[in-house]
Amino acid sequence: MEASGEAASQDAWSRSTPNERVIAAVANARKSLYAGVTSVRDLGCSGGSAMSVAAAVAAGKLDGPRISAAGAVLCMTGGHGWFLGRQVDSPWEARKAVREQLLAGATCIKFIATGGVLTQGAVPGYAQLTPEELTAGIDEAHRHGMRTAAHAIGTLGIKNALRAGIDSIEHGHMLDDEAIELFKANGAYLVPTLTAPTCILEHADDGKQPEWALHKARTIAEQMQTNIARAYRAGVKIAGGSDAGTPYNFHERYAYEIELMHRLLGMSPQEALHAATAVASELVGVTKGTLAPGEPADLLLLESDIAANLATLYQPLAVMKDGSLVFDRAG
């Protein structure tokens, strides 16, 4: 929740202050809710801002979606996201970090299994946390009933995390056929975050993004559509998640991820919406993401049928959360 779509790279992050990040997290929670998103995961913040905002929303002190917060990501020393993470270099350090994250208020845990786009020098295709570190950390999180997610772009890191028992892979753009079989055997979810590299490349000429990040985004984009579409056709569970906060990937535009799942993966509008609601909610474990007796009355009022006009998701007429009207475009 701390990143708003502008300050997302390592250098930009270092120029923001902790107070600015908390303010951004509050604003982004509201933007998400008013765009029709009633439950989210925050999979990486530099301090406790996401946990604090989650608690304030749960207590009714702030407008926002239900938030399952990971807090600091768990990465190897100097690994991807080190500037907003906890650096661990052994199985026992991984276990201790999970325990300390739980103590700090985290409700899920994110591991960094490969390099990434927005950390200089981190190669997306290279594995980072070791299989032993992943296995220990994931086991510790599961012992405490917490869901786990792994940032994993490269093939080996994806398979390392899946073999270690991860609940979801974020990105997964370089997956292969063996990884697809591991997804299916383990019942793990794939969150393709199509919006993240797409938005970076759509604004490649803005002069604001470092060339090293653009180069990595281009490399990923060359494989992303083909590989993720193949996983979808093979029956891997695809859950919607945008990686909001990366460059030009704004919290109020979650609908773009749904549009890209339709356009790039070949999902019907209804299938894309199902991935973004029921499947994503199943992954997060907050609600079922469906309208049924005993479930929260989370409703989105739209101008037209998404089957005919998917773009209607960008401007909801009204949003209800837990049966209460939280946004009304008419005022």
From TrEMBL:
Record keywords: Hydrolase
InterPro entries reported in the protein's UniProt record: Amidohydro-rel (IPR006680), Metal-dep_hydrolase_composite (IPR011059), Metal_Hydrolase (IPR032466), Metallo-dep_Hydrolase (IPR051781), OTAase-like (IPR057744)
Q: Please give the Gene Ontology molecular function terms for this protein.
A: hydrolase activity, acting on carbon-nitrogen (but not peptide) bonds
What CDD domains has UniProt attached to this entry?
Met_dep_hydrolase_A
Q: Amidohydrolase-related domain: which residues? A: 16-326
Show the stretches that span the lipid bilayer. Answer: none
Span of the signal peptide: none
Q: What is this protein called?
A: Amidohydrolase
